[in-house]
């Protein structure tokens, strides 16, 4: 990679790293796995930087890479060897921010129990505030599929959380 390209890549990743890590954390619900998924995505971005920088919307291109890295990691997770017992949970600084930490923790725990594809749709729709069409493009599926996954994901969250907490989550299906 040329020095100018490497500098542009470094500037972009440095500026977007907090946002990308936040998305990865909400998808994985584990800071260490989020780091791994993010590292995979930005490594692929480095390899394909010449193609990525020519994309119409670089942010969308990178979010797509991140989501696909997450989904691939989920699919291949069974093949991973675990050398120790269950990993201990370490709270992420992202998870600890905000006034209502208890509600946030409950929602995060419930989101972890939502299937990966539905979780990806919910994170893109509600955390990243993306429209249905853009989420469909990122995930490589139809808009109807995104709407269906959103409805099912919200339904699952409502069942896990109970109606009072989840009432504020359903305004955008």
UniProtKB/TrEMBL annotation:
PANTHER family in UniProt: ECF RNA POLYMERASE SIGMA FACTOR SIGM, RNA POLYMERASE ECF-TYPE SIGMA FACTO
Family statement: Belongs to the sigma-70 factor family. ECF subfamily.
Species whose genome carries this gene: Actinoallomurus vinaceus
Keywords assigned by UniProt, alphabetized: DNA-binding, Sigma factor, Transcription, Transcription regulation
Limits of the RNA polymerase sigma-70 region domain: 14-78
NCBIfam families for this protein: SigE-fam_strep (TIGR02983), sigma70-ECF (TIGR02937)
Coiled-coil boundaries: none
Limits of the RNA polymerase sigma factor 70 region 4 type domain: 107-157
CDD domains: Sigma70_r4
Stored InterPro entries: RNA_pol_sigma-70-like, RNA_pol_sigma-70_dom, RNA_pol_sigma-E_actinobac, RNA_pol_sigma70_r2, RNA_pol_sigma70_r4_t2, RNA_pol_sigma_r2, RNA_pol_sigma_r3/r4-like, WH-like_DNA-bd_sf
Pfam families tied to this protein: Sigma70_r2, Sigma70_r4_2
Superkingdom as given in the UniProt entry: Bacteria
Listed name of the protein: SigE family RNA polymerase sigma factor
């Amino acid at each position: 990679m040329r020095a100018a390209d490497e500098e542009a890549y470094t500037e972009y990743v440095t500026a977007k790293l907090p946002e990308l890590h936040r998305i990865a954390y909400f998808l994985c619900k584990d800071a260490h796995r989020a780091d791994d998924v993010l590292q995979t995505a930005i490594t692929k971005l480095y390899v394909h930087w010449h193609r990525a920088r020519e994309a119409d919307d670089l942010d969308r291109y990178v979010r797509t890479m991140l989501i696909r890295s997450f989904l691939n990691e989920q699919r291949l997770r069974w093949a991973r060897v675990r050398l120790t017992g269950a990993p201990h949970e370490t709270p992420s600084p992202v998870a600890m921010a905000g006034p209502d930490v208890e509600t946030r923790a409950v929602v995060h725990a419930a989101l972890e129990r939502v299937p990966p594809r539905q979780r990806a749709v919910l994170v893109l729709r509600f955390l990243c505030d993306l429209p249905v069409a853009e989420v469909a493009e990122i995930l490589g599926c139809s808009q109807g599929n995104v709407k269906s996954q959103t409805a099912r994901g919200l339904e699952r969250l409502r069942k896990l959380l109970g109606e009072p907490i989840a009432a504020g989550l359903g305004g955008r299906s």
